[in-house]
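stuck on this:

***
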Amino acid sequence: MQIIGMNNCKEMLARMSNMPHLSIISAPRGAGKSLLIKRIATEKKLRLQYIGNKIDNIRELIQDSVALEEPTLFAISEGDTMSLGAKNALLKITEEPPKNCYIAIEITDINSVLETIISRGTIFEIDRYSYQDLKKYAIEVLGMSDNEDTSNICQIAITPGDVKLYLEIGYKDCYNFAEMVFNNIMKVTTGNAFKIKNRINFTGKGEGFPVEMFFNMMLFICRKHIDDPKALYIIECTIKALHMSRVNGANKEMAFDIWVLDCRLRRGEYYA
C-alpha cells in the first residue's frame, strides 16, 4: 500500500511493539487519515471495520467487542462531530478495553477531543505535506501532467485531498476568479463586493468554490502580486479569515463576510 508523505506516522508505526487500544488520527481534511488507518490495520494484522460516530454506534461497539474472537480495528470518522454522550461512551470502553478491540478515531481538531480520551490514546499527527509530496501524488496517483498548472496546484494545496479537489472543481476557474477578486474587491461598491460569495460554497454541498480553497487561492494570487501595495494587507485579512473558518463549528459564511469587510477597510489607502 503506497502512502505518500506521513513519514512521522510511518516511523511511529514501525517502532510500535504493541498496538494501542486507542489511536487518535489528527490531520486536516483530505490528508489521508483513512489511508493511514488502513496501513495500521494491514501492518498490525487487524480486521478493519468502520462504524458510525453516534452514541448508539458506540454502545453497539461496547456490546459487540466483549465476544470478539478476531483482533479488530474499529475506525470512527468525523470524530470532531461526536456528541458529548458519544464521547463519554467511547471513554467508557477505553477505560477497560476488551482484549481484541482496537479503536482509531479520525479528527481534524485535537481540541474537540476530551482530555480524558487523549490521555488514554496514542496520537498520530500527520505532518504537513511538502510540495514534493503533493507533486508526487498529483503525477503518480492522479496521473496529472508535470506542467505549470500542476506545479501551481501543489503550491496552493495543503493536502492530497486539496490537489484532487482542485482537479475536480477546476483550478483555472478558481484562479481566474480569485485574480478578478484581487483586482477589484477594493474598487467596487460594498454591495457588489458581497456578491463574491455567490460563487463560494460554505457547506461542502452543491456548486461553487469551497471557501478554504478560495482563501488558499487568494493567498497564492497575493504572493504572485506581492509588489502590489495591497497584497500584504489582503494576505493578513485572508490568514485571519482562514483561522476563523477552521475553528470547529465555525460559521464559515460569517468568516467570509468579515473577510470582505476587512479587505475593504483600508481601500482609501490604495485607491483615491
Notes: The chain has a mean pLDDT of 89. Residues 201 and 210 are 5 Å apart (CA to CA).
